[in-house]
Amino acid sequence: MMKPSSLFSKITTILPVLALSMSMMQCSCSDTLGSLFISEDDELRLGTEFDVQLRSEVNREEYPIYNASTVEKQEFQEYIETTFESVYNAIPKSERPAYPFKVAIIEKDVINAFAVPGGYIYVYTGIVNKANNEAELAGVLAHEMAHITKHHYRDAVMKQAGLSILMDALLGENASQLSQAVASMFSTLSQLKVSRENEDDADATGTRYLGDSRRNPTGIATLFSRMPSSGIDWLSTHPASTDRVGAVNKLVGSEGAAKSWDTSEEAKFQSRFEAARAKM
Ligand SMILES: [Zn+2]
Fold first, then answer.
1. Which residues have C-beta under 5 Å from ligand 1, the single-atom ion?
2. Which of 31, 112, 153, 269 has the fewest CB atoms within 10 Å, i.e. the most exposed one?
3. Residues 11 and 135 in one domain
4. Has this prediction a pTM greater than 0.85?
5. 193 shares its domain with 178
């Protein structure tokens, strides 16, 4: 069953947009359509339900959430959360969605990080191990945050889950309908694929966030320059352009992404990164 009032409001919102999209033959309409079909509140509901299911017993083997069972492990987790928060704080308020961003660590030797609509970001210990310094780790977080501020995952979920299943999830009368719909699109949500165009945008936007957090803004580029060009999980959902490193370096040189980079703090960043990772 659908709530008549919200269904009415969706339909009255959607109809003029469909007419508009038909009249703009060559437009890239998904951004416009995405915000009308899925509000930030909807994104948050989807993401929150996804996070509950990811942490459930049935998904524990595939997504083992980091178990901070010792003081040292708690300190590692706090380091990830503090780093995450400092990158988040560098995002201009005007670019932030209304919902807060959250980070969880998945304890698996997989080179990947992903996010779902609603501000939920998951980072694997495998990619933390791949990073050489804090700027590279923070770069991965900044890149994922940029996908969220630009609503790339919201638009991807519309394309990849399909509209009818999404509408079932979002217009359902009770929580179990949302829960069932999220369960049926769980694997889609955990592997939302973005376009190369979105990927370049997340590199550029994430590089700005990274620099504004006072870290070396080339972190995203230097990490990915050391990755193999195939065979890693990250690349299956984040298709890189051929000259990712060159594009980031050009941006850093030309648009002031490095204006807040505090080189005097590099040694401090490096030692706290290494100390925290040793406790992982
Ligand atoms: Zn990406």
1. 199, 202, 238
2. 31
3. no
4. yes
5. yes
